[in-house]
Amino acid sequence: MSMHDLSHRPVEHTHSSVGKIYLVGAGPGDPDLITVKGLKVLRTADVVIYDNLVNPMLLRETKPDTLKIYVGKRAGQHTLKQKEINKLLVHYASEGKIVVRLKGGDPFVFGRGGEEAEELVEHGIPWEMVPGITSAIAVPAYAGIPVTHRDYAAAFTVITGHEAASKEDGISFDWEALAHLNGTIIILMGMSNLPIIARQLISYGRAANTPVAVVRCGSTSEQQSVIGTLENIAEQIQQAGITSPAVIVIGDVVHLHHTLQWFQPLLASDHTKHMPDDAFTSTDD
Ligand code: SAH
């Protein structure tokens, strides 16, 4: 079946007094990286509730009368904000609306999509999940780094840099296991804690010269990569002035960047351009 056929097959909504919520992954940055199904539901939405990692170009796909609500989170306000977002979702669904909850990457990868879905279940609201392409895999791919490779890594672990730091003082993050697992380590929301993370991994036995890539604004015209080692990456990103949002990739697969780098951000079309920098920075680090 061609893409054309796919995108013209309608999505069947069961319109009733209670609406429906679609938790939709917007993909990592380039708006073309949303799924066909994600785009279809976006085009039929009455309400779109979106985050700061969502490329605003996608909002142009909505119907003219679609209500678009930005709920980008500010640092330090996550908990309160999340409650408000949950309330919004329940509110519009109760009005019988088709609501698209649009989140960057995949909603279930550090996107609190799980929590939002639990809330919907609790209120008996019909919902569906439309997975997205997570930045954890797509951003390395756009820097020419396969997360696994038969010669370099048979596993990959995706972690949040936030958790890593908050649990540094003792509770439960198992640095030792992570350091010893012979696979690629992918860190989201890790920019401010990168120095701590790199130190921990070295202290638990990862070689100081393990290659590290930091890729900012992946799959957009602003993509930037810095390549270093566990020992020097913190200094390198400071020198390069690289800030969040960035995906950190640690492991031998990073060597492939030099051979497989295929994406040329400067030649990427303007529509891949992301939100203003500040919209990004406040989210995570
Ligand atoms: N649900 C999202 C992740 C949300 S956490 C997903 O599946 O991709 C937010 C973090 O994702 C950011 O701090 C950054 O580490 C990463 N991220 C998201 N989009 C990115 C992009 N285009 N370039 C680099 N990092 C990105």
Describe the structure.
With 285 residues, the chain is α/β, with parallel strands linked by helices. It folds into two domains: 3-7 and 17-133, 3-Layer(aba) Sandwich (Cobalt-precorrin-4 Transmethylase, domain 1); 136-274, Tetrapyrrole methylase, C-terminal domain (Methyltransferase, Cobalt-precorrin-4 Transmethylase, Domain 2, 2-Layer Sandwich), CATH 3.30.950. Helices cover 32% and strands 18% of the residues. The chain has eleven helices and ten strands. It has helices spanning 3-8, 36-44, 78-94, 113-122, 135-142, 161-166, 175-180, 194-203, 233-240, 257-260, 277-284; strands spanning 20-25, 47-50, 67-70, 98-103, 127-130, 156-160, 184-188, 211-216, 224-229, 246-250. The strands form two sheets. Strands 3-2-4-1-5 form a five-stranded parallel sheet, with helices on both faces. Mean pLDDT is 88; it is low at 276-285. S-adenosyl-L-homocysteine binds at residues 28-29, 53, 103-106, 109-111, 134-136, 139, 188-189, 215-219, 244-247, 284.
Describe the structure concisely.
This protein has about 280 residues and is an alpha/beta fold. The protein has helices at about 5-10, 35-45, 80-95, 115-120, 135-140, 160-165, 175-180, 195-205, 235-240, 255-260, 275-285, and strands at about 20-25, 45-50, 65-70, 100-105, 125-130, 155-160, 185-190, 210-215, 225-230, 245-250. A hairpin with a 7-residue loop joins strand 8 (about 210-215) and strand 9 (about 225-230).
